[in-house]
Amino acid sequence: MERPLTQHMRPDGKALSLQEYEKTGGYQAARTALKMAPEEIQAMVKNANLRGRGGAGFNTGLKWSVVPMGDDAPRPKYLITNADEMEPGTFKDRMLMEGNPHQLIEGMIISAFAIQAGISYIFLRDEYRTAAKRVAAALSEAYDNNCLGKNIFGSGYNLELHLHTSAGRYICGEETALLNALEGKRAIPRTKPPYPQVSGLWGKPTVVNNAETLSNVPHIVKNGVAWYKGLSRSQDGGTKIYGVSGRVKRPGLWELPMGTTIRELFEEHAGGMQDGYKFRCLIPGGASTEFLTGEHFDVKMDFDSVMKAGSRLGTGAMIIIDDKTCPISVLYNLEHFFAHESCGWCTPCREGLPWVEKLLKAIEEGQGQPDDLEKLEMHGEFLWLGKTYCALAPGAMEPLRSGLKLFKEDFERHINEKRCPYGNGRIF
Amino acid sequence: MLSEKEKNEIETELKQYEHKRAACVEALKIMQHSRGWVSDDGIHDLAGILGMTPDELDGVATFYSLIFRKPVGRHVILICNTISCWVMGYNQVLRSLNERLGIGLGDTSADGRFTLLPVPCLGACDQAPAMMIDNELYGDLTPEKMDEILGKYSWERD
Questions:
Q1: Do β-strands B75-80 and B114-119 pair in parallel, antiparallel, or remain unpaired?
Q2: Contact predicate A90/B128, CB 8 Å
Q3: What is the average pLDDT across B121-149?
């Protein structure tokens, strides 16, 4: 089985140097791409059906196709890697940047060329200090070897690539909040439209793509659309870096064909539950996705199949919840995270999430009231899509809405018995 | 007053951006790295060279969890309190830190050695529960490992 993103990584997990990367065929795709027409690369990536790996699953080539092209297009244009990986349970971009930063840089060169961007940034979360060191070292190698800067590989194309490290806020991963952060403002989201492809950083055309997404691009250019689509077991192209965490025997990351089933990931790769624990449910793609249960084990982990099953693929980072962990406290933990990370800009999110958090805490501690469930359901409506500036609050409502249905009995026991039947009781 | 070293480092960052204020997060981090935290005077000094008002800069500084507007200990412990770590035993790890350091979340130990802060998902979910001390990530934590880990951290500032 081919694993284009990870098969050349070193077993010790250290970063490939530029020389090592080139030995595996690295920077060949960039050399090829810089001789192609930008629109040709856009079409290739679109036809390969590379869908955004940050969680939204939008077709990457289609996203690029909205960028104004030609001599009259506003300049400079920008390409930005969203490496602000903070979705709970998700740790794939860290591995990609620590293990092969040049793969990301090459993906950025090709993608920037495809939209004719002149300036690019890697927006990295502050806590990824090892990744920051390795990306910075790779950038300096790339500049020294004419992979970046002026007249790249003698093509006449110029690209500046800078590393920006953030300072710890989940909202910076929202693409318009990320743009405000890069402009040195408070990282609150912007209204859309205008979309960043038309008016983004400093009002100029800007594309923001996830680190895993961009790491795929060199392989599409090098091996072609048919090959890339052939890697997948679904309509979505390529492989996916899947993760599993929680009380399983072997938590970890695996690069597998897009569309690998939940069962294969959970049983075969993660080894099933640790001894003494039983499976209760899972969250398939980071904190802001709906719960799935054992009846969903044969669902394929691709964007459309997980959507059909009533949840979202998200980041493909599966979190397993065991039978000894109280599901109400799981919800409390998730909503605590979202309430803390709300940027405070729009009222439903700023006021609603702390209320949800308080209600869940009270229920978990045995002080819940019978009408609390209605209040929680009401929030599930009022913080839903279309009611807020960005997707943070609706994302927070995904586990809550599904949890209210799935854990109904647990909720009622907490309220009726005025205690946590799992003996948790206290959370933080 | 900014030191020569701080000034030089900030100058380097300013070159990466078309507008000065875009370098403000980096500038705040440079100051924090050299002084441990960012004081009101620090905000005033930085605002000047970034072309921002002190209030604008403070608005950015206070937005971020990892810009410290109060003094912190010589080493900062960031303990992950998010779902995977929490399922895997965050509470026991926190308790063992509370007992050993005599402090709760948000506090600095009496000897000024450690500040203990919660952090959202560290992206180390395959080695949960996890925490970071300064630049170092520690995973698969148990209360038994804590003495050895904390023992690595000197009483002096690095």
A1: parallel
A2: no
A3: 96
CATH topology (fold) of B75-151? Glutaredoxin (3.40.30)
pLDDT over 50 at B28, yes or no: yes
**Six-digit token pair at A27?**
């920077």
Is A1 buried (19+), middle (13-18) or exposed (0-12) by CB count in 10 A? exposed
Which residues in A lie closer than 8 A to residue B122 (C-beta atoms)? 127
Average pLDDT over residues A132-142: 98
Distance of CA A330 to the CA centre of its chain: 21
Domain count, chain A: 3
Which of A185, A265, A398, A420 has the highest number of chain B CBs within 10 A, making it the mutation to test binding with B? A185
- Same structural domain for residues A347 and A315? no
Mean pLDDT, range A278-305, rounded to an integer: 97
Residue B33 gets which letter from DSSP?
H
Please give the pLDDT value at position A425: 47
* Contact indicator for A309, A262 with CB cutoff of 8 Å: no
Q: E strands, A145-260, where?
A: 160-165, 206-210, 239-246, 252-257
Contact: B82, A251; criterion CB under 8 Å? no
ipTM value, please give it: 0.96
Q: Based on the number of CB atoms within 10 Å of its own CB, is A8 exposed (0-12), middle (13-18) or buried (19 or more)?
A: middle
Question: Is A427 among the domain residues?
Answer: no
Per-residue pLDDT tens digits for A297-334:
999 999 999 999 999 999 999 999 999 999 999 999 99
Q: For residue A161, give the chain B residue with the closest CA.
A: B16
| Length of chain A in terms of residues written | 428
**B83, A90: Cβ pair inside 8 Å?**
no
CATH 3.30.230.10 fits B4-63, yes or no: no
A251 with A199, same domain: the answer is: no
Distance CA A289, CA B151 (A): 40
